Amino acid sequence: MTTEEKTTADELAAHPVTASFHGLLFDMDGTLIDSTNAVIEHYKKIGEEIDVDPEDILKTAHGRRTIDVIRMFRPEKATWEYVRALEAALPETYGSATPEVPGAKDLLNQIMSKSVPWAIVTSGTTGLVTGWLKVLGLPKPKHLVVAEDVEQGKPDPAGYLMGRKSLGLEMKEKDVLVFEDSPAGIRAGKAAGCKVVGVVSTHSAEQLKLAEPDWIVKDLSKVVIAKVEDEKVVLEFNVVADSLSN
Which residues are listed as membrane-spanning (predicted)? Predict the structure, then answer.
């Protein structure tokens, strides 16, 4: 079966799901924006500068903080000053070649118009995140959790735990949904006690399924806000049928 045939089969097998949550948490790269080309160029540059094969770096990099990736190969080079300078240049350099994930802007605009509690929890630095949002014209949330805010990056749950707390939803009985595109991010969201939607962009549905998200969607155009009631947002989304973890 070709990739095109498999995609069509998955779409035909998809089914609708309705679920409600007190708040929403979004990863950035690969979930809201398709920064694949920029990330590849980013790690090519890092590989050249720290004398490591970029292909080796890219095998483990996605979903992880740049500083953690560098620590794996050249701990002595892993400084925030170095990382911030590298990442701050990415949006301006690659913004024209970095599209939003389909449906991202529309979903975020719905969230903003209905005053749904939300935050971005990302492995990127402050300059990288704010730069992407500005270049792509995406709404900026009131709350951002970035690489510098936590001691350990994804798959550690610290970022998503901080995201829950920023929304005042740290209590276990509060239902929080995470949108993620990487196995490391999915595991972080689950470990933080959240439900997780895996977004097929940087990884296949089969790869995401191994991290055991609650649902998997093709992209964010498959997610809509049905209504907001009783302090919860009701979402409707088309789930890839064979991606459920239970």
Answer: none
Name residue, tokens 């901080």: 162
Listed in sequence order, the residues at least 6 apart from 113 whose beta carbon sits closer than 8 Å to its beta carbon are: none
Residue tagged active-site, from 29, 34, 68, 181: 29
Structure tokens given for 57: 């770096």
Residues 54-85 pLDDT 10s = 999 988 887 788 999 999 999 999 999 999 99
Regarding pTM above 0.70, the answer is: yes
Same domain as 106, residue 56: no
Per the residue annotation, which of 10, 27, 181, 214 is the catalytic one? Answer: 27
**Do 27 and 146 have their domain in common?**
yes
- Write out pLDDT tens, residues 200-228: 988 899 999 999 999 999 999 999 999 99
Choosing from 96, 125, 148, the residue where a domain stops is 96
Euclidean distance between CA atoms 169 and 105, whole angstroms = 24
Whether residue 56 lies in the annotated active site: no
51 is catalytic: no
Output the domain CATH number for residue 51.
Answer: 1.10.150.240
145 neighbors 122 (Cβ within 8 angstroms) = yes
Together in a domain, 134 and 30: yes
